[in-house]
């Protein structure tokens, strides 16, 4: 018998706020965190805007010596995980540390370390490479550093499924608790690759928006959309087995009730055109949770602002919900914070939890007029205030990775 899983802690580092409180305040205000790239000279690049994390000082959020041995993607993960763990009120000294684990993913890890050390190899020779190059670079080090910093000795893994990484990590952490591998899991995603290689690489795919107007660059489902905006940050949550949480008198934000994960088996970058793969992930999540399409109040869409994603995800929602699709509120958090790649699912999961708490569904900022074939309620213009009981959140990654989580009001 599967055990029930609840959310008891939240932590975030984002382009519109470096704590959950700041981030959610920005979401409610419709704040857009997109602007000119400052992390390197992008004057020769086709794309010159991104959604950067601002005013983040690692030594204020963690041990200074430890921070020096982490790249930004790991620093963001540790900062967000510390916030989530403190928010949960868990005292690890009173817990079995082998029953508390970590699943935190990053789609890419550190491209910056590769750039820096390749330059050293070319200019000064291979002996000048940073001895810590590999542990700074590899994507599992976010999970490793979180485990070290919080003293969590249980299952410690990372899922790398491109832009679905954060959602798959939370889903796999959910499974670990359901099937008694753990009582507590710290899970989510992190990313930081606003650097020459990252911007050039995604530009080469023609995946990035070439807009120079930050307010009209990330415009999911809009007829004028022309690509996504690269973002960075981390979204980490604490999941806990229900009885374990109740026994210690935990604050419970919401219940995680369903998880669907599928593969398109179609194309290395394009989603399946009819939306069946992503639609099946939603159906699986709803079936596990015992929730009918008519009960879904809100879908936090992957909504990248690329032509293919938004059109095919619209088809996926119709495939999954049928006639109920026309009545559900759909939005995209990426309209405000850009696309955080492996961190997107973690941050957007937090939005879903806060939406349930506050009865608030944010607007899809910047988007004005939907494409003809994108014909759902994408929450353009203004937010929606209503009771929110059941939410789906979607993440779709290069390679055909589809992941959906169903979050519900805890009762």
TrEMBL record:
NCBIfam families cross-referenced by the UniProt entry: fabF (TIGR03150), PRK07314.1 (NF005589)
Pathway stated in the Swiss-Prot or TrEMBL entry: Lipid metabolism; fatty acid biosynthesis
Could you tell me which SMART domains the record lists for this protein? PKS_KS (SM00825)
**Molecular function GO labels:** 3-oxoacyl-[acyl-carrier-protein] synthase activity
Q: What does this protein do?
A: Involved in the type II fatty acid elongation cycle. Catalyzes the elongation of a wide range of acyl-ACP by the addition of two carbons from malonyl-ACP to an acyl acceptor. Can efficiently catalyze the conversion of palmitoleoyl-ACP (cis-hexadec-9-enoyl-ACP) to cis-vaccenoyl-ACP (cis-octadec-11-enoyl-ACP), an essential step in the thermal regulation of fatty acid composition.
Q: Start and end of every Ketosynthase family 3 (KS3) domain?
A: 2-409
Belongs to which family? Belongs to the thiolase-like superfamily. Beta-ketoacyl-ACP synthases family.
List of catalytic residues: 163
Which keywords fit this entry according to its UniProt record?
A: Acyltransferase, Fatty acid biosynthesis, Fatty acid metabolism, Lipid biosynthesis, Lipid metabolism, Transferase
Which Gene3D superfamilies does the record match to this protein? 3.40.47.10
UniProt xrefs under PROSITE patterns:
KS3_1 (PS00606), KS3_2 (PS52004)
How far does the signal peptide extend, from start to end residue?
Answer: none
UniProt-listed InterPro entries: 3-oxoacyl-ACP_synth-2, Beta-ketoacyl_synthase, Ketoacyl_synth_AS, Ketoacyl_synth_C, Ketoacyl_synth_N, PKS_Beta-ketoAc_synthase_dom, Thiolase-like
* UniProt-listed GO biological process terms: fatty acid biosynthetic process
Which cellular components does GO assign to this protein?
cytosol
- UniProt-listed Enzyme Commission number(s): 2.3.1.179
Q: Mind giving the lineage of the organism this protein is from?
A: Bacteria, Bacillati, Bacillota, Clostridia, Lachnospirales
The protein here is known as 3-oxoacyl-[acyl-carrier-protein] synthase 2
Under catalytic activity, the entry for this protein gives:
(9Z)-hexadecenoyl-[ACP] + malonyl-[ACP] + H(+) = 3-oxo-(11Z)-octadecenoyl-[ACP] + holo-[ACP] + CO2; a fatty acyl-[ACP] + malonyl-[ACP] + H(+) = a 3-oxoacyl-[ACP] + holo-[ACP] + CO2
């Amino acid at each position: 018998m599967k055990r029930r899983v609840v959310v008891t802690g939240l932590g975030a580092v984002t382009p519109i706020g470096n704590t959950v409180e700041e981030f959610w305040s920005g979401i409610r205000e419709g704040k857009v965190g997109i602007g000119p790239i400052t992390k390197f000279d992008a004057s020769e690049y086709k794309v010159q805007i991104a959604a950067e994390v601002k005013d983040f000082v690692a030594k204020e959020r963690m041990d200074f010596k430890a921070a020096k041995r982490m790249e930004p993607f790991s620093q963001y993960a540790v900062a967000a995980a510390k916030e989530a763990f403190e928010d949960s009120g868990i005292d690890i000294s009173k817990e079995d540390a082998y029953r508390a684990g970590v699943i935190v993913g990053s789609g890419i890890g550190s491209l910056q370390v590769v750039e820096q050390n390749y330059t050293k190899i070319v200019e000064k020779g291979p002996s000048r490479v940073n001895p810590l190059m590999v542990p700074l670079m590899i994507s599992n080090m976010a999970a490793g550093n979180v485990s070290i910093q919080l003293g969590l000795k249980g299952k410690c893994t990372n899922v790398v499924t491109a832009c679905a990484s954060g959602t798959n990590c939370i889903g796999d952490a959910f499974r670990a608790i359901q099937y008694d591998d753990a009582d507590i899991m710290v899970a989510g995603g992190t990313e930081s690759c606003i650097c020459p290689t990252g911007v050039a690489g995604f530009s080469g795919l023609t995946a990035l928006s070439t807009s120079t107007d930050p307010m009209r660059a990330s415009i999911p489902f809009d007829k004028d959309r022309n690509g996504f905006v690269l973002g960075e940050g981390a979204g980490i949550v604490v999941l806990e087995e229900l009885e374990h949480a109740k026994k210690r008198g935990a604050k419970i934000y919401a219940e995680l009730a369903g998880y669907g994960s599928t593969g398109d088996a179609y194309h290395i970058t394009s989603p399946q055109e009819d939306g069946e793969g992503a639609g099946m992930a939603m159906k699986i999540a709803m079936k596990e949770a015992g929730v009918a399409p008519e009960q879904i109040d809100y879908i936090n869409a992957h909504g990248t602002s690329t032509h293919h994603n938004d059109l095919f995800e619209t088809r996926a929602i119709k495939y999954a919900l049928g006639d109920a699709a026309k009545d559900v509120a759909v939005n995209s958090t990426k309209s405000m914070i850009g696309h955080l790649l492996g961190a997107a699912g973690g941050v957007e999961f937090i939005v879903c939890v806060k939406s349930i708490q506050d009865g608030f569904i944010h607007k899809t900022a910047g988007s004005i007029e939907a494409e003809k074939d994108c014909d759902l309620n994408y929450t353009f213009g203004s937010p929606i205030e209503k009771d929110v009981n059941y939410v789906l959140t979607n993440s779709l990654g290069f390679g055909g990775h589809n992941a959906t989580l169903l979050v519900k009001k805890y009762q």
